[in-house]
User: Fold this.
Amino acid sequence: MAKKTDTQINSSALDEVQNPIFRKNLQALFKQDEILAVRLLTLGEQKQYEVFVGKDPIDINMIDKNSFEYIYEKPARDTEQLLSTIGNESKRYPVMFFYGLGNGVFYKAMLHNQTHKHIIVIEPELEILYITLNLIDLSEELANERLILFYSDFVTYSQIYHLMVRQVFMVYAKTYTLHIHTPFYDKFADDYAKINKHFTRAIAQVVASHGNSVADMLQGIDQHIRNLPQTIKGYVYFDLIKKRKDLMKTAVIVATGPSLDKQLEALKKFAPYVTVISLDASYPILAKHGIKPDYVTSIERVVETSSFFKKRYGEFDKDIYFVVASLTHSQTVKNILPRRLILTIRPQAEKSFKLDKHGYLGLGLSTANQAFQLANALGHTNIVLIGQDLAFASDGKSHATGHAFVQQDEYIYTTAYGGKGEVRTTYVWDKFKNQYESDIESFNKKGIKTFNCTEGGAMIKGAIERPFIEVMTELSQNAEIKNLPHIALPKDRVVEKELLQSYNFIERKLKVLNLVKNKIEEVFLDVVDDIDKMIKIRNEGNVSEKLFKKLVAITNKIDKAKMFAGKKEFRLYIEYILSISVYYQELELAKISVAPSETTLEKTNKLIEWVEMHKYWLFSLAGGINAEIETTKKASKNLINEMKKRNLLPIK
Assistant:
């Protein structure tokens, strides 16, 4: 007899739910959070909360039978007060965050306002979720994700991060506040603080991963384009994965934390039986100790990173693949060649070139995250971390003996390895750790185990903490000495096709960038004098309702320019420079957009703020686009020279 799938079981169980409201709500929730829906479906008897329903359909209250506390003093009155305070104050907020579901009536009412695209609600009590979803029909709101429900016990940082990375949440990051539904939820203060920390960490991670500056982004674009010929001519990432996927069960990722010193002897013993992935900074240390890695990863774009590859080790280097982000510094490429170099494309701006066989690897801020993702791509089911301290040692050391650089002191603290006490870390290391924890949670769902055998430094949540010798002895039992197959360089016809594809893409990109730049500059010159006059009037305290129509006219011109820049057919070529050039202005604009304004005078003052910020928006975007045009032109010389050698340049 065939075994029923979870989906069939869930479908069958749903059909047996007698309450049509609960059945509809669960059907919608299954699409949003299947684990929570199953838990509610199989909850059974409710013991802690009792519900009271009055004559008024919104007069629904619940009492905690242990503490004798009600969620509301008077449900109808309390809901009306919430709507008149939070509801009115936030009526322009596209996204909102609440702790506590209560009876659900408030959220049903709030979502009548179509401005609210998403309301996120975290509820700490499973029984309250169960009762409310039996009483209030929220199925439409759940199905279209205008209402997103979380059960606090199931919430992880990774879930919150993947929510906040979505565009609508990213843009409104500066408007984030976690509202407590009613005073009843004050008793969950510790849980509320934990959830709030997840959100603030996720927001910080999203902002950090967005890039530090236009200059930083332009350096990446410059180096990616300069390296295009070598990316295309060199060993291909897709070929490597195809040839070697699932050949090895265990990978050891070697970072350069202070604890690495004590693991080197054991690593040398087990290296022949497992995949060894070295970070760029670890490579000279491993070479010194005669431990050959299978892969060396690097993601940094600064020239200093090239120093790790300056020394060559002859026969030792023969079979190593250097898996490096395509936006690396050209000196790094020179120092690695003629060794086996694979330049990989990151899943960011570089993705627009559509050289899919060369990517996509390196989501995150560090080469440690890159190596972790490589281990996953190669099909390893056990990933072992060593030297991944992400913290200063007790003697103040930041890296293993033999590392070329020293980390600048910072005084930030995080939970120590083993969960006891705290260790000193840095802002950047903490972001690396966040990415690790997000990846570990995703990998766990695929049955991949992550072992943190650093035996020191910071705790990486989700990783199994065990001694390195113990784990390697267990994982290497009956393992044979590895003999990994190699890949060939791509054929000339494939190389030439991709060179031409890249050239044509750059030509189209430059055309679009020039079109948008000209439009933005035209509108900026048209409105800047009027905007400056409005700012002067405001600063002199002479704002009146008479200015409103003029401000609307200015706003309409700006809106048309933004619509032009945001055209669907331009998106592939401009999306990244657009997002990073004006990201911080967009965060400020989001704050302005949600501010309350009822009277014409209030609306006038708000519009002055709005056009003032757009003055910087237009200026920043025009400047960013112009810089990318110039950067792209200069960086394309290597590509053009390679095409000239091959007689590939199209006749114009």
